[in-house]
């Protein structure tokens, strides 16, 4: 008897984890743990949010708005206990391209539309399909993004001055940077190297300390005291405001919506992948299970909320989520407090942000790129198999030299083809003659396979038995069809095809069996199908594979016995059939 798992209801699927933990007697000790974890994550998120915003082509305050508003909504409504939302490095390439083409207003509209798409994806319960993205694709696009982001930070790391706008494509970008090498700023290089050294040293000797904020603080103090000739947030952006802006809707004119739909779709696709990957990481660290569709709905509302306050794209952030778990968070309250702590820091310390060197923020992003490059996983997949290596390298190269969306689509397409090829290779067709009582072993025992059919122990050349094993679908139909056409060299009077080991069958496969039924009819033979599940039988019926063209039996033995009984003038076979029964 097949036991099916109970399908969760709508309320169970979309109840935020915040509600779940509050039902579990959330106490003061839990609040203290979440407050400490939230503060720890806020310290990490403060420089990262500004650095990602600057690298995305917008002002640093928009990164803070994103982390404050979007991060709060993600934790309050999300389907993961530990997810931390905010601006993510994975979006830098897409966001920067959208700003360059449509301006900041276009970016905000695309973020708003992406939020609506994510809400729809979640409520349509499409979040479960994200898991079908092959692992080599995720490693390839993550590593590719790391390379592209690092290339975008070379200008700030070296303090270069370009003659014109910085190209978006990586090869023209590198060419422009090479031409700008004479403008290299030694002070900016020194600040960047110092910041990197501090980050590495703190993580090596005091891993529990906030390496990013320490590096930013030291670089800012030294830059101010020594009056270093480096660009800062103050010199380029005039500082950051000390409060959140008044929320307002973006321009929702039809022309603008149509123009921004492709960017919004890219944001929604990447956001869903990134957020669910982050939730899976949190699950693996804690043993919990997230609600994927509830998480996507929360990500959607978070993007809508962020856009209303002038923020950029929101998604689950793997590094900050992992930091949240390691800091001892008990539930979503930690993420909500992280946003409130960021708001408090912005209100109190906004004037100090003007002294932060851009080279130090670039060093922070360079370290983020190093961490997200997934070097070990990349090398492992290159050695794993030729197919996985092709998918990985193709995704990586298209992300680096074309764009992120193309890379994901190409990688997914190649991964799907590789899967179909492997599934087709796994399908096997075994054929032979039925075994009679005389073929049982001398010791009186019988082998399970031998008692069904064995070509070496042929006792009845008028019956051909075939067994198909594996998923019988369009990718394997040609192989199986050729194998079936090759059996029956002596013009058998009956074909027996066993489906006991076939978990699924599609229309192409059913058409192949229909062709075998027609071949048997031309030869005056009878086709018997055994072990067919109800779902397989329905597909076969739809393609005309039904009595009298084919007969259905429960087992191979029953089909062989029926075939012998219907063969006129073959007394020996009938007798053998009765003795075998």
From TrEMBL:
What's an example Gene Ontology biological process for this entry?
transmembrane transport
The signal peptide, as residue positions, is none
Which CDD domains does the record cross-reference, listed alphabetically? STAS_SulP_like_sulfate_transporter
* Keyword presence, Transmembrane helix: yes
Location relative to the cell: Membrane
Sorted keywords for this record are: Membrane, Transmembrane, Transmembrane helix
Q: Does the keyword Membrane apply?
A: yes
Q: Which Gene3D superfamilies match?
A: STAS domain
Q: What's a GO cellular component annotated to this UniProt protein?
A: membrane
Q: What is its main location?
A: membrane
- Pfam hit, one: Sulfate_transp
What sections of the protein cross the membrane? 35-56, 62-79, 106-126, 133-154, 174-202, 209-228, 257-282, 340-373, 393-420
In its UniProt entry, what is this protein called?
A: Sulfate permease, SulP family
Q: Which organism is it from?
A: Rhizorhabdus histidinilytica
């Amino acid at each position: 008897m097949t036991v099916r798992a109970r399908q969760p209801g709508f309320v169970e699927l979309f109840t935020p984890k915040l509600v779940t933990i509050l039902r579990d007697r959330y106490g003061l000790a839990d609040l203290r743990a979440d407050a400490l974890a939230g503060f720890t994550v806020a310290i990490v998120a403060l420089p990262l949010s500004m650095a990602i915003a600057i690298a995305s082509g917008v002002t640093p305050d928009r990164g803070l708005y994103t982390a404050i508003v979007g991060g709060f909504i993600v934790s309050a409504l999300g389907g993961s206990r530990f997810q931390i939302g905010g601006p993510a490095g994975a979006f830098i390439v897409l966001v920067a391209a959208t700003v360059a083409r449509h301006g900041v207003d276009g970016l905000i509209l695309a973020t708003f539309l992406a939020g609506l798409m994510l809400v729809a994806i979640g409520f349509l319960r499409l979040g479960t399909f994200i898991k079908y993205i092959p692992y080599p694709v995720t490693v390839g696009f993550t590593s590719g993004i790391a390379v592209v982001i690092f290339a975008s930070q070379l200008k700030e790391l070296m303090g270069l001055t370009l003659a014109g706008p910085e190209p978006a494509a990586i090869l023209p970008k590198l060419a422009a940077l090479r031409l700008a090498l004479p403008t290299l700023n030694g002070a900016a290089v020194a600040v960047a190297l110092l910041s990197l050294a501090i980050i590495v040293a703190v993580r090596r000797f005091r891993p529990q300390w906030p390496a990013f904020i320490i590096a930013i603080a030291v670089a800012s103090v030294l830059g101010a005291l020594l009056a270093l000739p480096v660009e800062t947030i103050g010199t380029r952006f005039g500082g950051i405001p000390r409060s959140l802006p008044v929320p307002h809707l973006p321009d929702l004119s039809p022309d603008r919506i149509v123009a921004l739909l492709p960017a919004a779709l890219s944001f929604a696709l990447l956001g869903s992948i990134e957020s669910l990957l982050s939730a899976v990481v949190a699950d693996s660290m804690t043993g919990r299970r997230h609600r994927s569709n509830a998480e996507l709905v929360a990500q959607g509302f978070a993007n809508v909320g962020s856009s209303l306050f002038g923020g950029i794209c929101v998604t689950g952030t793997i590094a900050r989520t992992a930091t949240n778990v390691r800091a001892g968070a008990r539930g979503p309250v930690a993420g909500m407090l992280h946003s409130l702590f960021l708001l408090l820091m912005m209100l109190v310390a906004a004037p100090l942000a003007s002294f932060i060197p851009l080279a130090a923020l670039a060093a922070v992003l360079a370290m983020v790129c190093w961490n997200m490059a997934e070097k070990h996983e990349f090398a492992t997949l290159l050695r794993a198999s030729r197919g996985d290596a092709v998918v990985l390298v193709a995704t990586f190269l298209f992300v680096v030299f074309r764009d992120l969306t193309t890379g994901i689509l190409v990688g997914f397409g190649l991964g799907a083809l590789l899967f179909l090829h492997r599934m087709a290779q796994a399908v096997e067709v075994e054929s032979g003659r039925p075994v009679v009582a005389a073929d049982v072993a001398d010791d009186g025992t019988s082998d399970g396979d031998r008692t069904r059919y064995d070509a070496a122990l042929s006792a009845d050349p008028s019956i051909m038995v075939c067994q198909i094993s594996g998923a019988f679908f369009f990718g394997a139909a040609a192989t199986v069809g050729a194998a079936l056409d090759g059996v029956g060299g002596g013009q058998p009077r009956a074909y027996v095809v066993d489906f006991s080991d076939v978990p699924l069958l599609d229309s192409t496969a059913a058409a192949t069996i229909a062709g075998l039924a027609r071949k048997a009819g031309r030869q005056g033979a009878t086709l018997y199908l055994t072990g067919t599940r109800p779902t397989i039988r329905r597909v076969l019926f739809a393609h005309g594979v039904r009595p009298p063209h084919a007969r259905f039996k429960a087992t191979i033995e029953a089909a062989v016995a029926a075939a012998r009984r219907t063969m006129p003038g073959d007394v020996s076979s009938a007798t053998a059939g009765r003795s075998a029964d």
